[in-house]
Amino acid sequence: MTTADLSALADATATAVGGAVSVMDPQGYVVAYSSVPGQPIDDVRRDGILGKQVPARYMVHHIDPDFRRSSAVHVVDVAGALPRLAVAVSADGEYLGSIWCIVSTAPSGPPDSGAVTALTRAAAAAVPLLLARRSPAGPGNPRARALLTDPAVVTSPGSCFAVVAARVDSAQPDVLLVQLGGLLELTFGGDADSGFIVDEHVVFFVVARDDDRGVAEEAEEVRRRAEVAFGVPVTFAIGGPHARPAVARSHARWALDAVENGAHTTTFEQSRVPVTLNRATDALSDVPLAIPAVERMLSSDAAEGTDYGATVLALLAHESNVAAASASLYLHANTFRYRLRRTKELFDLDLDDPDTRLLVWMSLRLRAGR
């Protein structure tokens, strides 16, 4: 399938109905449009074609769930734009995209039967063409699956791979994640070494690249468009570039796990500190640090409502600078020093030994990060 096939369908439909036609994918990307001369168009169509996506202020009509579930031809009349006839394209209950046709005036009653017939037939003809856009890439692409899951997969000498990991803040994310994978494919191309899988409510997209900054910039544009289309927060994290795509996937997942859900794109390098702390917490979760003095101190804090643990952590976080540490807790320096003396008296906590200070800091810092 080529874009020319969809463009030919758009031209044929525009000729039959008598108005300019655009074909959209589920995210509101303009994947094809008619070029029949002499038909009226407006700024919405121009902006959509130039930007390759429906302008954000009009996306509400494309993501309307009632429209997506319907097989009827709808009349859409919005201030500031020419009226349109629109029909959803679906197969077995799955929304694949839509077809939109400009008309000179909004019908006062039901749309013209000839236009309805032409658009209904166009929607049926578009089904195999829109389905084919997912091949060979997509969650069923064996090459992408091998790159993302097999550490021993063979790649070309000197090649590097970046992996985009993404999640959506939705109660039913997997359908959106498949659509998000398709959106990434539209942006990054469909070469043999690119594609995506969905695993544990995360989409992983692999692409042959040697610059994470360039990938991050393109991915952020995808993320913004996806949020408009889905109506929910989307979070991206990028791993790599790395010669082994499975390693880049791990880095992307670690970065994704280290950041809060929300509207942003991050990279492994940008998230290295929280990633390292998370990994350290995981590594030590089955081997308790078990410093008796720390355990007694934290138990006392929990039972008595004291803040000895916070006091010690502040001291270590500020490299034993009492003035800075006490200020961080809004305490007078003398009060802070008194608390430190009490930790030694009550719990036999010795902070003079550097190894003990390291273990105490790790214990308190990793607990605080959980």
Helix/strand layout:
Layout: H1 3-17, E1 21-24, E2 30-33, H2 43-51, H3 59-62, H4 65-69, E3 74-76, E4 84-91, E5 94-102, H5 113-132, H6 142-149, E6 161-168, H7 173-188, E7 195-199, E8 202-208, H8 212-230, E9 234-242, H9 245-258, E10 264-267, H10 272-284, H11 292-304, H12 308-317, H13 322-328, H14 333-347, H15 354-369
Parallel strand pairs: 9-10
Antiparallel strand pairs: 1-2, 1-5, 3-4, 4-5, 6-8, 6-9, 7-8
Please explain how this structure is put together.
The protein has 370 residues and is an alpha+beta fold. The longest helix has 20 residues. A hairpin with a 2-residue loop joins strand 4 and strand 5. 50% of the residues lie in helices and 16% in strands. The mean pLDDT is 84. It is elongated and about 90 Å long. The protein has a 5-stranded antiparallel beta sheet with strand order 2-1-5-4-3. Helix 13 packs across helix 14.
Percent range for β-strand residues: 15-25%
The radius of gyration is: 28 Å
As laid out across the biggest beta sheet, the strand order is 2-1-5-4-3
Provide a count of the helices. Answer: 15
Unreliable sequence segments: none
Strands, total number:
10
Overall mean pLDDT score? 84
- Apparent shape: elongated
The H/E string reads HEEHHHEEEHHEHEEHEHEHHHHHH
Strand count, sense and closure of the main sheet? 5 strands, antiparallel
Report, as a whole number of angstroms, the end-to-end distance: 49 Å
The class by helix and strand makeup works out as alpha+beta
Helix content: 40-55%
